[in-house]
């Protein structure tokens, strides 16, 4: 009896002669980080957030991944480092008045708020700072933009939060700091670079775009 049981355990029946294979049921093309993310966040984040804010093919992948981590509050801000057991004083590198967290650093800090206000088109627009990046996704739509404005619009969030993060790291590790007016120009340059290289219909030079920023959205 024991020998028969051991034989059954060690010799499972063969269903067919095909080799084993790994199957990912959530994407016909196979496993990808994007399909995993969509599976984990299904129903919690709007589609335009995934397509335009995180997984935009015209934005460098490292910035897309940073946007993903930031939206999940996983970037290594001081509050998250403290949660990992690091004994650090928590003070925002940008304003020196509040504790650093992903939402504060990228959205609510006075330094960040100034940048958001300067990048947003002024005409017929009222900007209220969302409490976190997920809420930013829900409000990230604006009807009535020109064709050029719609094209530019998709690049704004990633360009701003990535630029703020790199500036934060420059202050933290190199002791260097840029004023907001210089940051705004560099962010507009980044947005225009992405816009120009992702559409043949974007005919403006970078200088024209920066000098006539608001008119691009009309």
From TrEMBL:
Keyword annotations of the record: Nucleotidyltransferase, RNA-directed DNA polymerase, Transferase
Family matches, as Pfam families: zf-RVT (PF13966)
InterPro entries: RVT-Znf
GO molecular function, one term: RNA-directed DNA polymerase activity
The UniProt record lists the keyword Nucleotidyltransferase: yes
Domain Reverse transcriptase zinc-binding, first and last residues per copy: 31-116
Top-level taxon: Eukaryota
Entries under PANTHER family matching the protein: OS12G0587133 PROTEIN (PTHR33116:SF78), REVERSE TRANSCRIPTASE ZINC-BINDING DOMAIN-CONTAINING PROTEIN-RELATED-RELATED (PTHR33116)
Name by which UniProt lists this protein: Reverse transcriptase zinc-binding domain
Source species taxonomy: Eukaryota, Viridiplantae, Streptophyta, Embryophyta, Tracheophyta
């Amino acid at each position: 009896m024991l020998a028969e049981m051991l034989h059954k355990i060690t010799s499972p029946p063969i269903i067919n002669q095909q080799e084993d294979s790994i199957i990912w049921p959530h994407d016909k093309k196979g496993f990808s980080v994007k399909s995993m993310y969509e599976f984990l966040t299904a129903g919690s984040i709007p589609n335009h957030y995934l397509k335009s804010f995180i997984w935009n093919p015209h934005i460098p992948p490292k910035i897309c991944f940073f946007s993903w981590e930031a939206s999940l509050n996983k970037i290594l801000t001081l509050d998250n480092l403290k949660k990992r057991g690091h004994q650090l004083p928590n003070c925002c590198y940008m304003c020196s008045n509040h504790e650093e967290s992903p939402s504060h650093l990228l959205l609510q800090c006075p330094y960040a708020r100034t940048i958001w206000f300067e990048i947003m088109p002024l005409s017929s627009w009222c900007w209220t700072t969302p409490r976190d990046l997920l809420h930013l996704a829900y409000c990230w739509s604006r009807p009535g933009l020109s064709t050029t404005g719609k094209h530019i619009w998709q690049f704004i969030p990633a360009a701003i939060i990535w630029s703020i993060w790199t500036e934060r790291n420059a202050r933290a590790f190199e002791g260097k700091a840029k004023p907001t007016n210089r940051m705004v120009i560099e962010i507009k340059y980044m947005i225009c670079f992405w816009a120009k290289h992702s559409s043949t219909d974007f005919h403006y030079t970078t200088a024209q775009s920066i000098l006539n920023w608001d008119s691009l959205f009309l």
